[in-house]
Amino acid sequence: MPERNAATWNALVVGYIQFEFNEEGLSVFREMHVSGFRPDDFTLSSVLRGCAGLKALSVGRQVHCCVMKCGFGIHLVVGSSLAHMYMKCGSLEEGEAVIKSMPIRNMVAWNTLIAGNAQNGYGESVLALYSMMKVAGFRPDKITFVSVLSSCSELATLGQGQQIHAEVIKTSASSVIGVISTLISMYSRCGCLEDSIKVFMECEVADLVSWSSMIAAYGFHGRGVEAVELFEHMEKEGLEPNDVTFLSLLYACSHCGLKDKGLEFLNLMTEKYGIKPGVQHYTCIVDLLGRSGCLNEAEAMIRSVPVKGDAIIWKTLLSACKIHKNADMARQVAEEVLKLDPQDSASYVLLSNIHASAKGGRRFQW
């Protein structure tokens, strides 16, 4: 392309971010800005979505300045994208401030506000906003239902979840896959596995997300054998699992003592499906080995994994040391935790107690 104009710059930025090449999209946006071309509202919304995907808060704030300079400060679509970026980056107050500054609050703004509170763990605020949205005359849609049901799941508010399920049915959103999988999770978290099964069985066309949610529900309720059977059934149906499916499966195996099956699935994940395990997958395996009493194997796993470990994976092993009363290993593991998370008070207390027992010539008591 011999010469780029504003339209081609905008198309290039939007194209990268649309296909989730967020870093490349932001890089092209910088070039565009340096070259003196003015972005349009669609480009700015896309760039903000890219910042949200990368959780690049400082870059997002710079783009916010660009939004104001370009005169899109009260633009509804750009404003909603701005709020979404702030909330996705964990800055809920800044996101709410953007929405409050908008001249009118449309459905997109309401959904952004509700989803932002849900993502940041403010479940009670989500339910309050949901009521306010309906009072303001807006009807919930599939995006609203996913956020609100997720909050019911986190709060374990079964009654509220059942009421919203009734609203889902009335608005014909009960066939939407995202809503179905959220309903499965909500009922499971509220202790109603049979209702999760009912929702899953009534789903006309279950996709991978629904299958994974149901596998996770079985695992959450200690029904590891059923989780494994469902996975095998899913494979026979021709659905190919992804990293989330395997995470649900490994969680089920770890909470049900299915050590051999868990290790088998980790191997299947890499060998058959070519999926690279992340730190969460390895944490499940460490938990599985730890619960089975294989503490040395669990430690060796942490030290040999090709991904960078975090404090959580070491804390998982520390919990296993407590279960099996292995004070010597607990001391070493607690020190590893504190290297990664110096503020972890539980590890300090544990180390202090172990050292006090050793100094007094007593055997450490858990």
From TrEMBL:
Record has rRNA-binding as a keyword: no
UniProt xrefs under Pfam families: PPR (PF01535), PPR_2 (PF13041)
Signal in keyword set: no
Keyword terms: Repeat
Coiled-coil parts of chain: none
Transmembrane segments: none
UniProt repeat feature PPR, residue ranges: 5-39, 106-140, 207-241
Gene Ontology molecular-function annotations: RNA binding
Gene Ontology BP term (one): RNA modification
InterPro entries recorded: PPR_At4g14850-like_plant, PPR_rpt, TPR-like_helical_dom_sf
Official protein name in the record: Pentatricopeptide repeat-containing protein
The species this protein was found in: Gossypium anomalum
Lineage, uppermost ranks: Eukaryota, Viridiplantae, Streptophyta, Embryophyta, Tracheophyta
